[in-house]
Amino acid sequence: MPEELSPRTVIAARMGVILLWLATWEAFGRQQPELLSYPSLVVTYLWSMISSFELFSLLAASARIFLSGWVLAVLIGVTIGVVVGASRPVRLMFEPFLNALYSTPLVALIPLMVLWFGLGEKAMIISVVLNAVFPMIIMTIIGSRNAGKEYREVARSFRLGRIQTILKVVLPGALPYLLVGLRLTTSSALRGTIFAGFLIPDQGIGNALRSAGDALNASRLYGLIMVVVICALLVDVVLRRGIKLIDYTR
Amino acid sequence: MKRRSLPDLVWAVLGIVLIVAVWQFYGQLTNPFLFPSFTRVLGQLWEYIASGILGRAFVETMGLLVVGLAIGSVVGIVVGIVIGSNANLSATFAPFIQVAYSTPRIALIPLVMLWFGVGFNAQVVLVFLSCVFEVVTATEAGVQLVTKQYREVARSFRLSRLQTFIKVILPGSVSYIFSGIRLGMGSAFVGALGAQMFMQASGLGSVVKHAMQSFRTDQVMACVITLAITAAVLTAGMRRAEQRIAPWRNDSFDD
């Protein structure tokens, strides 16, 4: 076993990797700027996007769609999951169907949403919901089934009603599964937002990415990809923090 | 005490019948161009099959998926093992892999097009990117966990590093690797569809897109049914292979 580095050295190593990557990109990018661009140019370009508020409006449009879709997916997912998970016949009837949809790449439904709701925000939000809701449903079903086993007797002896049992016993017991569902739902919602933006010309990042690619504008494209990466990272960090706050099992 | 109840399969069939009945009923009430009935979608599906469109598209999509997923799995396993067996590498690269993992890889389509064009190879690159980090993350986690659990045992059997790796760590992490590939398959499928929709038109992706452009809801639905069946079969196949290769680990926890 090699000796373990100190945390400080590890951070230095990470910085080293980033610097090496930036230096290589800068060196090669200056040779072929129209294909590779280079970091200093990308940063300058990003700065101009920030100071003209263009980036802000792009982010606002995408964030609105992502957040509405995400909130709806979580609420609908947990509700359907609880309803389906609560009774054995209902679960047996609908779980195979829901499982099949869970593993289906539902980006294929985005075209249908375009046909139903037109090329607009409504179609995008519903697309995000459809892409993100199934992990939440499936994990809630699995979770409420596993939580039910041990505590349902207790709940009965405390004479809790159905709704109270769900709120006070089933959902808290299912929490670890709900949190897994939450993570999967979040990444699917992000993916859905970008995918829908490719298909539906909106004011957000997805469409901007696509048109930057079509225009062969390398600096803009790299800048926007960096923005997507930073946003995804930010969402991930916020989610982890949030999960840490509510997860009492840790 | 178990209540006496109908067998599981009967309920499942009942569920399908109910869904199809509601779909059919609703489809006949409303405008068939907006919401086609089940039989209409089935008819379209049959038309797709009979004309050979679906078969060709299916083969193209599967080819792309299999090639991309295979490359992604091999690279992902190797990288995952290397990073997972060295604590320093793992600590250094963990944040980068985390970033790549949480970024929606579909956003890289314009980048891949800029670098590699729109052909099959470029599409493979996208599918590869869509699944490789899933495999890396799962493999790394598996190797680390198994190492932690069995290090003492391996040492007391006086196994060399190579022996420990081949006899302990590799078999121990197989099930983790498989979960990674299964997770990667889902995202590779999305990547493949995205590639076929937005890069060079081919496969099921282009069939769906064409259906949208010609305002054919029945065609879109026929495609979605095809995809759902394909995905269900693939997932079931993966689970079965998983149980074959690592029968000692029996869980269905998708993390």
Can you give a write-up of this model?
The complex is a heterodimer of chains A (about 250) and B (about 260). Chain A has helices at about 5-30, 35, 40-50, 55-85, 90-105, 110-115, 120-155, 160-175, 175-200, 205-215, 220-245. Chain A has about 250 residues and is an all-alpha fold. Chain A has a single domain (about 40-245), classed as MetI-like (MetI-like fold, Orthogonal Bundle). In chain A, helix 9 (about 175-200) runs antiparallel to helix 11. The radius of gyration of chain A is 23 Å and the shape is globular. Chain A starts with 6 loop residues before the first helix and ends with a helix. Chain B contains nine helices and no strands. Chain B has helices at about 10-30, 40-50, 55-85, 85-100, 110-115, 120-155, 160-200, 205-215, 215-245. In chain B, helix 2 packs across helix 9, helix 3 runs parallel beside helix 6 (about 120-155) and helix 5 crosses helix 6. Chains A and B meet through helix 1, helix 5, helix 6, helix 7 and helix 9 of A and helix 1, helix 4, helix 5, helix 7 and helix 8 of B.
According to CATH, what is the topology of chain A? MetI-like fold
Average predicted local confidence, pLDDT of chain A: 90
The oligomeric state is heterodimer
* Secondary-structure content class of chain A: mainly alpha
- Summing up helix and strand content along with how strands pair, one would put the structural category of chain B as mainly alpha
Task: Sketch the topology of chain A as an H/E string, one letter per element.
Answer: HHHHHHHHHHH
